[in-house]
Every structure is written in structure tokens, then in C-alpha cells.
Write a structure and sequence with these properties.
With about 180 residues, the chain is an alpha+beta fold. Helices cover about 55% and strands about 15% of the residues. The protein has a 4-stranded antiparallel beta sheet, with helices on one face. Strands 1-2 form a two-stranded antiparallel sheet. The longest helix has about 40 residues.
Length: about 180
């Protein structure tokens, strides 16, 4: 019973780490990466559709992404979706392909991205602490309901705290790596 609670907490904390990885993929680092475009949706005949489901995305060189829509009539919609995204990219088209040059980041933009990364990491830490709080409450209810002893509760609370510390440190490590990636020239 306690192990089920611990497993659930571990799974949910791991989910917070995975979510942070996904969010960090969307942060520009000055190098072309197709995952930068993951959050962009294209108006595909009235339906918002992820760009990866309407076009082939390639990185032919470190500072360029090429989107080749499968339906040639979607070229302008793909270009518009990229242009209006929050990424600040300026795509161009030749009627068949959408070329997305990735400009070098300015120092101010790098600092802004680092701040955003710190904010994302803090959200992940908050999510981890919330999972810990939920787990602690479950254990307290189990003890009040006489499902577990005080000693079992104490051991489980210690284990939950260790999991929390481990996952919080992992967030710090991920953030440090992303920060170095962003600030690298």
C-alpha cells in the first residue's frame, strides 16, 4: 500500500522532469533544431494542426530549417504560422519549400532565454513539491485511518523527501546544462 503511494509519487515527479525536457526543447539556442517548431500549429483547412503533421522538417545546415509541406497549397499557411509564432523567426518561401533561417542570438536575447529557462525550471520544482505534498497527505490519511503505523508513515515521509530532493537536484542539473547551451556562442 505504501509502495503504491511511493511509486505514484516517483512516476509523477519523473513526469515533471519529462515536461521540463519538452519545454526546454522549444527554447532557441542559436542552432537549428526541428524540435524548436514543436509548439507551432498550422491552420490546415480550418483545423489547428502541428507543423510536423503537415510538412517534412529538415536541418540541412546548422543555421537553417527547411519545411516542405506535403500539400503544396499549404506553403503560405506554414510560412504564416512560423512568422506569427513567438520564436521571432522570419521564414521565406519559393512556392515549394519554406526556408527558416535561424539568426544568431544577441546577448540580450540569450539573457532573456536564460530567464525563461529559470522560470520553466521553477515551475518544474513547484510541480515536484506539489507531488510531495499530495503524497504526504495520502500518508497522513492512511495513518489516521489506521492503515499504516506511525513508524511506516515516518519511513515513507523520509523516502518521499529523498525523492523530492533527488528530482529537484535533477531540475537544477538540467537547467545548468540548458543555460550553458543558451549562453554558448
Amino acid at each position: 500500500m505504501i509502495q503504491d503511494v511511493i511509486r505514484d509519487i516517483q512516476h509523477r515527479m519523473h513526469g515533471a522532469i519529462e515536461a521540463l525536457h519538452r519545454e526546454f526543447k522549444s527554447l532557441r539556442t542559436g542552432r537549428a533544431n526541428v524540435s524548436m517548431l514543436d509548439g507551432i500549429t498550422v491552420d490546415y483547412y480550418g483545423t489547428p494542426t502541428p507543423i510536423s503533421q503537415v510538412a517534412t522538417l529538415k536541418v540541412p545546415e546548422p543555421s537553417l530549417i527547411v519545411a516542405e509541406p506535403w500539400d503544396k497549397s499549404m506553403v503560405s499557411a506554414v510560412e504564416k504560422a512560423i512568422r506569427t509564432s513567438e520564436l521571432g523567426l522570419n521564414p521565406s518561401t519559393d512556392g515549394k519549400l519554406v526556408r527558416i533561417p535561424i539568426p544568431q542570438l544577441t546577448e540580450d536575447r540569450r539573457k532573456e532565454l536564460v530567464k525563461r529557462a529559470h522560470h520553466m525550471a521553477e515551475e518544474a520544482r513547484t510541480a515536484i513539491r506539489q507531488v510531495r505534498r499530495d503524497g504526504n497527505e495520502k500518508l497522513k490519511k492512511m495513518m489516521k485511518g489506521h492503515e499504516i503505523s506511525e513508524d511506516d508513515e515516518k519511513r515513507a515521509l523520509d523516502e518521499i523527501q529523498k525523492l523530492t530532493d533527488k528530482h529537484t537536484e535533477e531540475v537544477g542539473s538540467i537547467l545548468k546544462n540548458k543555460e550553458q547551451d543558451i549562453m554558448a556562442v
